[in-house]
């Protein structure tokens, strides 16, 4: 498979498009947790219950459209392990849905900016992904999808406690708002160790690229709300938006300071990383993530020209194990993955260079 064809098939809209503050904010996600009133929650329900829910969703979808296009409905039991891993690496399904899989399913919009997981920790997990900082827009779309489902299904709702969920931390609005943010300036300035505890004190949480328990590879952090009860959806989003905008300002200031005080050292770091990516024959995921972060910073600062800003978004996903094996056409050992990762990165940069020359 050619790199261009692979990219066209693999890259979702939130990876390939730019949004507000996209030099620092890679993506925005809104997720709503919902459960059905007349069924036990997924932590306790039977296989019969799970199948009945899936069958009900399939029937509902027969004549339904999302954004005037037919959505795709995928049953986890019918997917291969590699296919499920790729969906997870694209952030379209969660690791939890991959592990549970028993009568699990996902509804995907045509451009994959909407993903609705079925029979995960809750009966429904409505997720909207947008490029850049678009919390309000993503919330509006998620609420539209929420109303769309509620036109057919009766959700478990308590007058005082709000939407009822399997995990008590999601009770209330059932809302998780998160932003994927690239903070190389603050990391290089050794300020993240102080910033993360300060963010936690504001009722927000800082995680890695794949959420809870994952590492912040390539200086990419996920900032999200912890509180779902006692605040409206709009208040939760506004609080997160305020903190993220402060982080953006601090990151911009950190980058300006690095350029002012350590410009030649920073430029050297950027081009060394670019050289590694352009010429490596074997590379581990952590090194690749670090180099990609440096190159993206170099693009944002104008050191590197004629390379797409979206290269970090794309390659942070495309160099994960599932995508590497999909690109290669089958299972790979860890060492083979490191070799393939290097090959894919070189091919992607070569495609970028060819595009620049044609322009």
Structural features:
359 residues; eight-stranded antiparallel sheet; 15% strand; globular
**Terminal Cα separation, in Å?**
24 Å
Backbone structural class = alpha+beta
- Percent strand equals 5-15%
Low-confidence stretches: none
Count of alpha and pi helical runs: 13
Q: Describe the main β-sheet briefly.
A: 8 strands, antiparallel
Give the ordered list of helices and strands: HHEHEHHEEEHEEEHHEEHHHHH
- Widest sheet, order of strands: 2-3-4-5-1-8-10-9
Compute the number of strand runs.
10
Q: What level of helicity do the residues show? A: 40-55%
- Tell me the Rg in angstroms: 21 Å
Average pLDDT for all residues = 89
Shape estimate: globular
Topology:
Blueprint lengths: L2 H8 L2 H4 L8 E10 L12 H15 L10 E4 L5 H9 L5 H6 L4 E4 L5 E5 L5 E8 L3 H16 L6 E2 L3 E2 L11 E8 L1 H5 L3 H10 L2 E4 L12 E6 L7 H47 L5 H16 L10 H8 L2 H8 L5 H25 L1
Antiparallel strand pairs: 1-5, 1-8, 2-3, 3-4, 4-5, 6-7, 8-10, 9-10
Helix pairs in contact: 4-12, 9-10, 10-11, 12-13
């Amino acid at each position: 498979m050619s790199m261009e064809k692979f990219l066209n098939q693999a890259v979702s809209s939130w990876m390939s498009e730019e949004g507000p503050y996209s030099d620092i904010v890679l993506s925005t996600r809104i997720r709503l947790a919902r459960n059905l009133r007349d069924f036990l929650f997924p932590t306790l329900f039977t296989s019969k219950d799970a199948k009945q829910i899936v069958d009900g969703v399939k029937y509902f979808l027969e004549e339904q459209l999302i954004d005037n296009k037919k959505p795709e409905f995928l049953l986890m039991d019918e997917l291969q392990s590699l296919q499920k891993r790729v969906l997870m690496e694209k952030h379209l399904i969660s690791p939890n849905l991959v592990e549970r899989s028993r009568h699990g399913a996902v509804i995907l919009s045509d451009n994959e900016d909407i993903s609705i997981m079925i029979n995960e920790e809750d009966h429904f997990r409505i997720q909207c992904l947008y490029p850049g900082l678009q919390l309000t827009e993503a919330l509006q779309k998620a609420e539209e999808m929420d109303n769309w489902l509620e036109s057919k299904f009766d959700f478990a709702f308590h007058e005082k406690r709000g939407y009822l969920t399997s995990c008590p931390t999601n009770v209330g609005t059932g809302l998780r708002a998160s932003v994927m943010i690239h903070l190389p300036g603050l990391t290089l300035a050794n300020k993240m160790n102080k910033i993360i505890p300060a963010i936690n004190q504001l009722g927000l949480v800082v995680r890695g690229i794949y959420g809870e328990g994952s590492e912040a590879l390539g200086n990419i952090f996920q900032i999200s709300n912890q509180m779902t009860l006692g605040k409206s959806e709009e208040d939760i989003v506004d609080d997160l938006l305020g903190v993220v905008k402060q982080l953006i300002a601090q990151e911009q200031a950190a980058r300006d300071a690095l350029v002012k005080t350590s410009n030649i050292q920073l430029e050297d770091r950027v081009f060394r990383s670019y050289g590694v990516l352009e010429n490596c024959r074997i590379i581990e995921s952590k090194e690749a993530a670090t180099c990609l972060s440096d190159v993206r910073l170099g693009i944002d600062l104008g050191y590197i020209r004629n390379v797409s800003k979206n290269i970090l978004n794309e390659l942070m996903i495309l160099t994960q194990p599932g995508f590497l094996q999909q690109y290669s056409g089958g299972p790979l050992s860890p060492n083979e993955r490191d070799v393939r990762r290097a090959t894919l990165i070189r091919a992607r940069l070569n495609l970028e260079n060819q595009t620049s020359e044609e322009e």
